[in-house]
């Protein structure tokens, strides 16, 4: 008896999961077609906003790898966003390097910076790590304004860069081209993250999050994995920063204050900690909700934003991830009910 | 594979002249003014089940934590296959063949049973961030192997029905088996079990004793267990070591230790004699 029933159950599960896999593929393809078609039917400013949303999504995903999957908190990822943005701007402005190559360069520099920052900082636990990263975020705008570096950073003025044209004579606007360029980067970064989280490395990251002592007993080198995860997380945020510099055509120290780090953190929590697609919801939230709040009341935009945030936390305490799960569960119950009523067998 | 190793163990078992698998040599450790371990020494040979007993606070778990290198003794040495383990960091211990379970369950609570067990393969497999992010061919093959062996362990411990459930949703007895499967995933030579019977009901404890003996037989694993449950220890151990206040007070076969006056005194109090 013990051998028969579990296998049968598992087969049913397998069937269900392969069905779900096909649905997921269909949804992904539909979404992709939608994302490709969208800029062709929209105004340039909206295309620009969507591009920024994708940039934020990459940054939030990077933060999620650190917080959601490795259990470390950072209030300083705005600093890595700044490093990525300035790397791209300086390389384009002074080095005359094509914008395409600034993306991997910014990623690598931020990876090294994150890893080096992570090595000593990761001896700190939880809230203390958050404080150390907070210090980094606070220091960053001043470092960018620092006069000995002015030759490269442009000091308070920042750096203005030119928007790249679409290549191969494609008949699309610059904004549309940047949208597609960002979309491809986004898909690659999400695919890498998805692979990573489901892999041996991803399991080690999650094991450290859930129980460091047991993780150590399983042979996981905690300090190595924690600092590498910090580096990879910084890499994601650095890539996002570089993209933002190219898309916005401008970098200046005051775009990268501590507020940016907090905004990314808000996006993470709203989207759902530890759920990869959550980054999209978080990005849309941090981009559009402030505008929406301003539309309701210009004078009290901050207060409206705050109230909306609080309401959201009440409605979906575990972010968009929790809400979606709840809806899917409801849907499954309803479907089962319908199937039961119509007497259909699966 | 298992039957092959079983035979080789059976042949080597009678020759007790062979070097011990584990040698604990005069290990001492104090926390501030408290002497947690005071010169503990014993040996364990390959294939033995050794029971470590003693009242609460005797130093059993402290010794366990020294063996898995979570603590470092102040003095003495711990040798595994003749080599000291004190020069190794804690995360290298699984790789040299020592796995453990924890007294109060230390599972990865947001992960399902299958993933918990797959983490157990960490020390015997290789990959890095780059190969995993790109999902290269070698990594994929390795992951398939991990999955295959993980499923055999899941079946071995009867966890198939719960394999995709989050571990916190499971009863203690099941979680204990998940921990056991996770420890076995590293393919250990020495398995450290810290109070495996804790929180189990009478029936489950009986089954546990059979399971531990079965694991030794099937997988050629040497077992060192800390346990309060006296009848379990006495029924399955080849050798018992009794601790009290950080010192070894008795060592020998279950029958010898059970009748040792110091052991009786430690458990029943000093008035009795």
Q: What layout of secondary structure does this protein have?
A:
The complex is a heterodimer of chains A (346) and B (273).
Chain A: H1 4-37, H2 44-67, H3 77-93, H4 99-121, H5 126-145, H6 150-153, E1 159-160, H7 174-197, H8 200-210, H9 212-217, H10 222-248, E2 250-251, H11 258-271, H12 278-296, H13 301-315, H14 319-342
Antiparallel strand pairs in A: 1-2
Helix pairs in contact in A: 2-7, 2-10, 2-11, 2-12, 3-4, 3-5, 3-10, 4-10, 7-10, 8-10, 11-12, 12-13
Chain B: H1 2-12, E1 22-31, E2 34-44, E3 49-53, H2 60-67, E4 75-80, E5 83-84, E6 98-100, H3 113-119, H4 129-134, H5 137-156, H6 172-185, E7 190-194, H7 202-219, E8 222-226, H8 230-236, E9 239-244, E10 247-252, H9 254-258, H10 261-268
Parallel strand pairs in B: 3-8, 3-9, 6-7, 7-8
Antiparallel strand pairs in B: 1-2, 1-4, 4-5, 9-10
Helix pairs in contact in B: 3-6, 5-6, 7-8
């Amino acid at each position: 008896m013990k051998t028969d029933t579990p296998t049968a159950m598992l087969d049913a599960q397998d069937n269900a999961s392969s069905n779900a896999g096909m649905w997921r593929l269909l949804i992904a393809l539909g979404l992709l077609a939608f994302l490709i078609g969208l800029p062709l039917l929209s105004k340039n400013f909206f295309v620009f906003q969507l591009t920024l949303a994708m940039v934020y999504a990459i940054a939030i995903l990077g933060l999620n790898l650190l917080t959601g999957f490795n259990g470390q908190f950072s209030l300083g990822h705005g600093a890595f966003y700044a490093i990525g943005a300035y790397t791209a701007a300086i390389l384009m402005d002074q080095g005359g390097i094509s914008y395409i190559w600034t993306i991997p360069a910014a990623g690598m520099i931020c990876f090294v910076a994150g890893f080096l920052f992570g090595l000593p900082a990761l001896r700190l636990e939880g809230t203390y790590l958050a404080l150390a990263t907070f210090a980094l975020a606070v220091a960053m705008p001043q470092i960018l304004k620092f006069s000995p570096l002015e030759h490269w950073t442009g000091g308070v003025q920042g750096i203005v860069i030119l928007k790249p044209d679409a290549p191969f004579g494609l008949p699309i606007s610059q904004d549309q081209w940047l949208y597609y360029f960002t979309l491809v980067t986004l898909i690659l970064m999400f695919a890498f993250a998805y692979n990573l989280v489901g892999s041996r490395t991803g399991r080690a990251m999650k094991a450290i999050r859930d129980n460091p002592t047991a993780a150590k007993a399983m042979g996981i080198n905690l300090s190595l994995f924690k600092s590498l995860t910090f580096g990879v997380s910084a890499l994601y945020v650095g890539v996002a920063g570089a993209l933002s510099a190219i898309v916005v055509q401008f970098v200046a120290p005051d775009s990268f204050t501590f507020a940016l780090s907090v905004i990314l953190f808000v996006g993470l929590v709203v989207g759902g900690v530890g759920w990869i697609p959550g980054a999209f919801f978080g990005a849309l939230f941090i981009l559009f909700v402030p505008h929406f709040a301003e539309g309701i009341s210009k004078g009290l935009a901050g207060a409206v934003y705050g109230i909306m945030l609080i309401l959201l936390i009440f409605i979906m305490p575990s972010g968009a991830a929790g809400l979606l799960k709840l809806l899917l569960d409801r849907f499954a119950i309803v479907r089962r009910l319908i199937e039961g009523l119509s007497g259909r067998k699966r | 594979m298992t039957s092959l190793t079983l035979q080789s163990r059976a042949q080597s078992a009678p020759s007790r002249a062979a070097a011990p698998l584990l040698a604990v040599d005069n290990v001492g450790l104090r926390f501030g003014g408290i002497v947690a371990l005071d010169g503990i020494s014993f040996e364990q040979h390959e294939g033995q089940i050794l029971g470590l007993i003693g009242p609460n606070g005797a130093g059993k778990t402290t010794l366990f934590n020294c063996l898995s290198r979570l603590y470092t003794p102040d003095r003495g040495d711990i040798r595994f296959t003749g080599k000291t383990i004190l020069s190794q960091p804690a995360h290298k211990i699984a790789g040299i063949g020592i796995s453990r379970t924890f007294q109060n369950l230390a599972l990865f609570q947001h992960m399902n049973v299958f993933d918990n067990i797959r983490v157990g393969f960490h020390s015997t497999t290789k990959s890095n961030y780059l190969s995993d992010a790109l999902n290269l061919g070698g990594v994929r093959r390795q992951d398939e192997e991990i999955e295959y062996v993980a499923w055999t362990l899941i079946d071995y411990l009867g966890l198939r029905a719960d394999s995709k459930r989050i571990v916190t949703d499971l009863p203690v007895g099941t979680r204990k088996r998940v921990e056991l499967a996770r420890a076995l995933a590293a393919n250990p030579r020495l398995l450290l079990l810290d109070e495996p019977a804790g929180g189990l009901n009478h029936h489950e404890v009986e089954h546990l004793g059979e399971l531990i003996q079965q694991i030794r037989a099937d997988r050629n694993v040497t077992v060192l267990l800390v346990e309060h449950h006296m009848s379990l220890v006495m029924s399955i151990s080849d050798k018992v070591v009794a601790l009290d206040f950080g010192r070894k007070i008795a060592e020998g076969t279950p029958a010898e230790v059970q009748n040792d006056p110091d052991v009786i005194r430690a458990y029943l109090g000093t008035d009795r004699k």
